[in-house]
Write a structure and sequence with these properties.
The protein has 103 residues and is α+β, with helices and mostly antiparallel strands. It has one domain. The chain has 3 helices and 5 strands, in the order βαββαββα. It has a 5-stranded antiparallel β-sheet with strand order 4-1-3-2-5. Strand 2 and strand 3 form a beta hairpin.
Length: 103
Amino acid sequence: MSSWYKLALGNDDEAFEPALRIQQMFMSKFLMCPPGSGRALFSCYDKANDNLWLYFSPAAQDIALRVYAQPCDSPTALDCIGLLAGEGDALGMGESALLKKAA
């Protein structure tokens, strides 16, 4: 079963460099994928806890596992999600749609 992944990077000062490196890793893979792959990287800043979260779509599992991200539920618009890289429509894709595209 496909899962979303999330990774806590810390506050703005701590998160900048790791977020940039992860975005570069993501883009190196994303640019080799066909359109509609469902690969996406989202970010969310949690003001209450002063923490930047990165969310990886199920199609970006390879990168998520490389950076030790943890499985999580699919984020929602209520999670203050912003597209960092990849396909923004991955957030609205159901698991069945992702499986059809992978086949």
